[in-house]
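If you are new to this repository, start here. Below is one unmodified record pulled from the training split, so you can see the exact layout before writing a loader.
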Amino acid sequence: MGVKPQRSVNPLKRDFYRIYVVNSIRKTLIYLLHLLISGLLTIILMVIVTHQLTSEELGQFVLVQAYSVIAVGIANFGMLAGYDRNFFLYEDSKKKSSQLISSALVPVAFSSLILLVLLFWLQEHIFQLLLPDQNFSNIILIVTIGTVAMSMSQYYLTYLKNSGLALQYAKVSIGNSIMYFFIALFLLFVTSLKSFSLAYAWLLSNALLLFLLFYMHRKLFKFSFNRDFASDMLKISLPLTPRVFFGFLHTKFDKIMLGYIGSVDLVGVYHLGQTLALTIFQFMTGLGRVFQPEIYRKLFAEKHKNSSLEIGNYLLPFFYLSIFVAILVALFAKEFVLMFLSEEYRESSLIVVILSIYYASLFFGKVTGAQLIYAKKTNITTLIMLIGILVNVGLNIPLILNWGIVGAAWATTIAGVIMTVAGYFIAQKYVAISWSWRPIFTIYGFFVLATFLAMIDYAFIQHFHISLLIKSFLILLYAFIGYKLNIISVDVIKDVIKGGIANKV
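And here is the target side for that same chain:
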């Protein structure tokens, strides 16, 4: 009998795939560098804030910011989702791309202007309704103007993200973080503005960001409003408006309820814990700037048909990296809080551990959101958000009354995980994506074990060296799991470090 010949792999196809993988990794590293710098600046600023502002003063700014984000989100009609989706229909035409972004920004700018005029005339009444025991009602107008500028900047940033211009995106975003950091520091140390220091820093940094992005794209995007483009985006985005309201309410509800049921100072402590835990989601967002455009491209190319694992296998390394960061944040939250924050904010470390469970699950939310937007079933997300709100309300009130900020963290986590699971099953009904469930359950199961040990460490382990030894072992074990699952590739890592394919990308 003859020897069965082995099937050779086309070298051009192999080289193309390797270049594609390395290019994706490089873009990911650029976005992660941006998030690393911006995250560090945020954390450093929060450390300084805990020594400059009381928890009540910080809580005041946080609550006002929460209300402004909800108001601006509603005023935007969810238009960013429509622009994000339709970008890929016209990305090869410079004229149509210009018309698309102009057609999105015009209605957003108009509705935002109406919102700001109403706030200017009614700000005192609105502030007394939302924060009756606080002073300085004009802080809500200042913060809302900054939020409007930030929301309009997102259209230009989405263009950079979807066009694969990762380096430009990172430079602009890092610049915005640096501006906010130094303006806030200057106002905190040189003036006596207190919580207004953060409000003015928010306004100035976001206004400068919007001006910079507009100046950068002034020649590329000539104003050209297209009614049909605007109408098509509105058909996608308008059903999202209730979802935007419910979505922002869901993410801010814990703080709002703490402000009403508890006190404003509890909001400040909770916000510190949430800010640290939020680094998990921010890391995912950085990864999402690489994988979400690819999801759309693969969906439009119908790669999800016939139960193909192509999309699921593509997403697995991103999921592994996201959970790795979640494990780091959950395990070392206690040490960070003890070393850097003032005594008033010490309880925030447990909040970090609890919320990390919620933020880790949001990886699937980033995928299911793309599935539903691709399928033009954005109205379904409103129902999912409504379920989340009802669960959140039902849990937050009794848990906050009994356990304060810890209860708020558990209520948010439980409601968020329920929403994520419901969103997955609903999205699969319309656009099915095949996942590699065995490695996913292995990775997420290990993460749940790590958070459980972090809670035990918070409550019982007092010896620093024993705690550090256990946590270091868990990190090494997770790396070993990634190697065994063939997620960590030594060859590709070497290519990225050496830059061997840089000229081909």
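Two things worth knowing about this chain: Residues 378-430 form the longest helix (53 residues). Residues 258-505 form one domain.
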